[in-house]
Amino acid sequence: MPAPGPDANRARYVDLLRGVAILLVVLGHWLITALVRHPDGTITAPELLATVRWTQWLTLGFQIMPMFFLAGGYAAGASWSRHLADGAARGGGSAVGWVRARAVRLLLPAAAYTGFALAGLGVARAAGADPGLLGMVGWALAMQFWFLPVYLVISAATPWLYAAYRRWGLGSVAALGGAAVIVDVIDLAGGGSWHRWVGTLNYLLVWAVAYQLGFAWQGGQFTGRPCLGWALAGGGAAGFALLVAYGPFPVSLILVTGEEVSNTDPPSVAMLAWVLAQCGLCLVAARPVERLLRSERLWRTVRPLGRASMTLYLWHMVPVLVVAAAFYLTDLAPEPAVGSGAWWAWRPVWLAVLAAGLLGLLAALRPLGRALTGLAAAARPQAPVRRPYALLAGVACTVVPLATWATRGFAPDGTPSPAAVMAFAAGVGLILLPPPQHRPARAAEEAQAGG
Q1: If I label 378, which of 23, 169, 238, 285 is the partner at 20 to 30 A Cα–Cα?
Q2: How distant, in Å, are the alpha carbons of 155, 185, 363 from that of 212?
Q3: Is 0.85 surpassed by the pTM of this model?
Q4: Collapsed DSSP state (helix, strand, coil) of residue 265
Q5: How far is 316 from 437, CA to CA, in rounded Å?
Q6: What is d(CA 407, CA 403) in angstroms, rounded to the nearest whole number?
Q7: Which residues cross the membrane (predicted)?
């Protein structure tokens, strides 16, 4: 088999970045999950980053969402530019059709997962499960949802973000970064709830910086210019170190309860610096890793990770709940003090059990994955496509409940919110609404009959 060309190597590297990012998210969540069974039989989950504070340094290795947004921007830039070229050949392309196809690919797996999670919580509630326990379970099942509304909105804004990149190049990245700094200064100033609302803009601005860098990467702005990657990596790392050492920002790149300033809720200027540093390292590593991925044997090992990344991300906390029920409720699991030497010694066993459970779950979900892939393929961009308002309303209706579930869980008081469920279902329905098809033959027949 001939070796893949440069474009194929780059696509492989992008897939690798996405897969590695999701894998590290999964491992990070599993590693910091701590469970304690009390004498009365209840189980609590103490926050490791708050209980054992040195573990906050571990987040420097596990906060790799900049890598995912960088890869996402590269893939979106390539897809959108192809769509524009195809549209020009056909006499016009539809941004609505492209955005709808991207939204469907993101929301179909999320909707399937949400349906299973809500059904499970509903059955447990009907069976008389403790509302407090269900609240904790619902939070664990939805904790990863913060990513979905952010990525959905940024994906929907791709046509405008890409146009800004084509016009201003890396200046568009600088503009987004500058806006994020201003927003963070306003948020830190405090003085009213409106500051907090302004601060939430950084969920989009900071992560859009990495996404926009993906456009620049795809557009060739870093090709043959490793100094730019090193400048991003070095400047971002130095900025992060200075902001943590002399500013109000903590070292943790994950939210820690009790801290007055967070780097992630919303993303801070320190997180912005980390975004630049991590994206720079990814760009510096691109050429040597692309050469390694020319090996078909290595690629056959890496490829399944990229294909299963969304399933891994959505379902990875389910094995935690199953193992907790099987080993902690039955008092079979050893329970050394959280953060002790014995507790850390058991971590590899904990990770291995969870990995085995997740592999079994992935095998069971394979038919569902194939069905969802088929549905997503049916929603590929079509032109011309109308109903932009239906798509906009669908995105809005899904973003709000997804953000709510990410912060409060599926069932904060033991019972899922009917309003959130209905809003999400309505939003997914509006996005899945098939576009109207032109029927010129029928139109001609009607014109002839009327004439």
Answers
A1: 23
A2: 11, 22, 35
A3: yes
A4: coil
A5: 39
A6: 6
A7: 16-36, 56-76, 106-127, 133-156, 168-188, 194-215, 227-249, 269-289, 310-329, 349-368, 389-411, 417-433
Q: 């060309």: which residue's tokens?
A: 5
pLDDT (tens digit per residue) in 372-398: 877 777 666 654 455 688 888 999 999
Rounded Cα gap, residues 112 and 241, in angstroms: 41
Instruction: Single out the residue of 372, 360, 317 nearest to residue 142, CA to CA.
Output: 317
3-state secondary structure of 338: coil
Residue 387 Ramachandran class (φ > 0 left, ψ -120 to 50 alpha, else beta):
left
| Among the listed residues 116, 119, 105, 207, the one whose alpha carbon sits nearest the alpha carbon of residue 157 | 207
Q: Which of 43, 124, 48 is nearest to 331 (CA)?
A: 43
Q: Which residues lie below 8 Å from residue 304, measured CB to CB, with a gap of 6+?
A: none
Q: What is the DSSP string of 30-91?
A: HHH---EE-TTS-EE---HHHHSGGGGGGHHHH--HHHHHHHHHHHHHHHHHHHHHHHHHHT
Q: How far apart are CA 2 and CA 4, in angstroms?
A: 6
Q: Can you tell me the distance from the alpha carbon of 149 to that of 402, in angstroms, rounded to the nearest whole number?
A: 6
What are the start-end ranges of the E strands in 71-177? Answer: none
Burial of 278 (0-12, 13-18, 19+ CB in 10 A): buried
| β-bridge mates for residue 267, sequence order | 264
Question: So where are the chain's domains?
Answer: 6-385
Three-class SS state of 414: coil
Q: What would the DSSP string read from start to end of 355-412?
A: HHHHHHHHHHHHHHHHHHHHHHHHT---SS---HHHHHHHHHHHHHHHHHHHHH-S-T
Give the 3-state secondary structure of residue 267: strand
**Cα–Cα distance, 306 to 51 (Å, whole number):** 34
For residue 304, pLDDT over 90 is answered with no
